[in-house]
User: Fold these one by one.
Assistant:
Number 1:
Amino acid sequence: MSLGDDGAYGGGEYGGQGPAGQTRTRLPGGEGDVYGTGRRPRGGMSSRNLVTIVGVVVLLIAAIAFANRGGDPSASNSSNPTSGAPAAQPTAPTGEQPVSGKKGSVPSGFPKTEQGAQSAAANYSVALAGDGMYDSEERDAIVDAVYTPSTAAARKESLRKVYADPKFLGRIGLKADGSAPDGMTFVSRVNPVGTKIEKFDGSTAKVAVWYSSLFGLAGEGSENPVAESWYTTTMQLRWVEGDWKIADLTQKKGPAPVGRDQAAATAEEMSKAVEGFGGFTYAR
């Protein structure tokens, strides 16, 4: 907020002092002045003296304003009571700190709160859409970390049929073992934008996660270049063995924003970006 917006350093803030020309200044030698022996010149105060006095008063006002600004940290963040302008609001993120525990590569130990459920859902979305799902051992570890025990057992088999299917892997440009061709970088990454509690009763929660997804192969000659998509996944969570776990989930497309007129990165730039920028632990 600028000084002119909230009036914090305007004339009314410091006793209503007006321009310097309205400040009374008693000069030596005036009529009735016991300390002066001469009379005031007929032409009145010289222009040089007037300029000097005005300059001193202006500097004094500026010094008072600066002192008040530095001495009161809230001066620039609060509104002038007489201005009617709203107080400035903090822009730093609020909420609980990210969890410190992990189960394999997946964050764990989320609190039994609405924020904890939202954090769990965001992090589980990242894990379930990551490239780790294309490795059989890592996929099983991810499933055990995010699903309830009974759900995990069933999901492992159904996911194995999908991720181990050579036809599916071929369609997305991967080898039969789930690895990327030589000279290519496989990208499968989710970036949560926000979460929303749709239902919460303490031990169960229904949480929607809105996110963008980067998926494809980065490299010269890729027939499946990295593209962006938007989805919303809704998870049914249960509090099991001291943590939130997925009992069921559904996914739908969007909402997708309007694309900007921005040049796509080259294959080399995309590969370097994916390899150089790590992911996050998400907390509400």
Number 2:
Amino acid sequence: MSSPALLPRLWTAFLDLLYTRRCEVCECQIEAGRTGASRWLCDGCLKNLPEVNSPFCSRCGEPYHGAISDAFQCGNCQDLNLHFEFAIAGYRADEAVRELIHRFKYQRELHLRGLLTCLLSRVLQDARLAATDRESWLLVPIPLHHARRREREYNQSWELCTRLTQLHRIPSLDALQRVRATTPQASLSRRERLANLKRAFRVKPSLARRGRLKGKTILLIDDVLTTGSTASECAKVLLQEAGAARVWVLTVARG
């Protein structure tokens, strides 16, 4: 009998044979049977994606240039009271990565969730994750306000969570609610961002009552990390309301 995980792979292989696949960046034809991110990208475009590599801030994941061999925190993080232990992204939000995320997020190109999840999976190689017990891990998406979700028809962060669960068998739980609509963060100062997000999130009451997140290592999932204010506020709620042991932030890209 075929395993549940095998059936999607067989279906994908069948579709690859039936339809011509083209690179999602340059649209050149790519051969069938490729796996991982190379199912969607040609070798050249995949190689040119702007990876986040060391050195980067050990707290927010902001990449830096230069020969820095020791772990460090950037000046911005030293001035902030962030509630997550660290954030890590696979790629910089530049060029093709930014365009792919924009298409997935705003143009309803849901087929790109497979590619973006493969790109996000790169962060699982980080030594800080590899050194921990996966049994306590739980994937939790950054939530959308119900009005935004109704407009967009899906939460891109939850789509990434569910696909990560399929690929890596890490359980996921849609545990947070955005209970108050907020002004877009990009236009605000640091102090305004914090005020804007205050009491904007909560753990779903039924999950909090049952202790579903108590003692868990939460992998908070999103497409892009920019200032980190939203992720930090979500982490604060998970720690204080749900009793999570720790929160790490994993994103496809670092803005």
Number 3:
Amino acid sequence: MAVNLWIERLARFGYAAKGGVYFIVGLLALPVGFGIGSKTTGTSGALQTIITQPFGKFLLSVVAFGLIGYAIWRFTQAFIDPEHQNTDAKRVVQRLGYALSGLSYTGLALTAVQLVVGSEGNNSSWRQDWTARLLAQPFGQWLVGIVGAIVLGVGFSYVYRAYTAEFRERFKLDEMTNAQVKWATRIGRFGIAARGIAFGIIGLLVIQAAVQSDPDEVQGLGGALQTLAQETLGQWILGVVAVGLVAYAIHMLVLARYRRIII
């Protein structure tokens, strides 16, 4: 029972930490969307922003602990499957996604720890490095293209999830007022759709890297937002996506408080 309680607390803290990171990403993208800024940032850049603030090391240490908690929750969902007791193909794919998410946020947490101890590491080019290695393999362009298609598919799945609002099923609706449910649904839809658009752009850039056999085309969240800003009407769309990412951050905070967590 005690272990279950700690996992739930880590999960809730993790959602809050993830929300804080996305809030910074969205907030820093807003000026670019409005034409008064020049550079966007991704999740790693958000961590670097945190550490430059007063008490930055302490704040980033808290965020790092939260990200570790979120990774533990994702691994719990992947390997223990506490919320769905079935093994159909859709569920297997979802559990694989949880595992990959856990790995991703473990990496982000390690980046935060490196910044706290004063080692920036080398996080700027790992996407290009793995793409270059993959392109060097037999059928490398096809492999990279498949990865891009998967990421693009993830983006579409987020947009679909926003449309269906299925995330409401995981709220503790009995603890929320009607007004809270209404606004949590609206904010969640907007935020999840914005994150889906960002994933879609990342996927398209990976596909472009495959077509051109150029690993430098691969970008993370910050690069995807920067690419969007350079397109026709891109700044306006970026502004909407930036607000959406702030909404996604608020959605994470709602999950931290009201998500139904079963261990």
Number 4:
Amino acid sequence: MDNAQPADEKRAAADEFRARNDALFARRKELHGQITELRARIDAGSGDTSAEVALRKAERDFDDLTYEILTANYGLVRQYVAMFTTRSVEHSEDFESAGKVGLLWAISSYDPARGSFSSWAFKPIQREVLRAVRDADHANLTLGDFEKRPAILAAERGFIEEHGADTPVDYADIAGRAGVTEAQVRRVLAPARLESLQSPHRGQDEDVVAWEDRLTDPSLNLEEEVLVRFHLRALLTEGLPRLDARERYVLTRRFGLDGGREQSLRILGEQLGLSREGVRQIQQKALAKLKGPVAGTV
């Protein structure tokens, strides 16, 4: 009986939380319907000042309720991120920021008819956190290889248990166990080593030099510099106005287009309340918009 009581209490607490969560989502759905109706009335020209006031209030209530749901379910993010912080404690805040992006996506797309919210939110949280982990610790792996990494590592452990740690790794055997290609196994277990440009290297004359000193001079000649400045000016005057405010903010500060220092994805993420992956996606979207020619004729 003593052991049953705590279990009963946990079950009751879980049921209470689920009921509260369902009530919050029901209220959010109701507010969404009100906002949609009010916007339609205003856009059709049949809404008066009171409708606009009601719309602003409904939007504030909707945002406040979304934040309340986010706060109530933030434990789902921490629970998943805890799996990755043992070796990457310094990145745990970035992982949680990424998980928050996934949680917000789950909140916006959740349909109570599909089951519990915790089950629905697991996949988007997992996706965003895994991307952040890959960017932080395994930048040399593609996202597809990284998703197969747990299965490959488990297959490697099985191979070692059967054949011993002294047996040379059989990539084909591990690939068969993990259900992946041999090339994927090699990329995960024997990734290419990325040398720093500042790392020393012994040259032909036995002189120790840095790799960066062996590269060709990247400086531009006068004609190339004039062209670069021309296209940059065209980008500032004709390209950036085509972006929304957040995209302009990210590109301007990411590449120092306003004359300031270039800022990292992490710093921009802190400023915008997003993960590094979230900022990177904004950057990619903005750059895609600017792929077309922006410079006019002279």
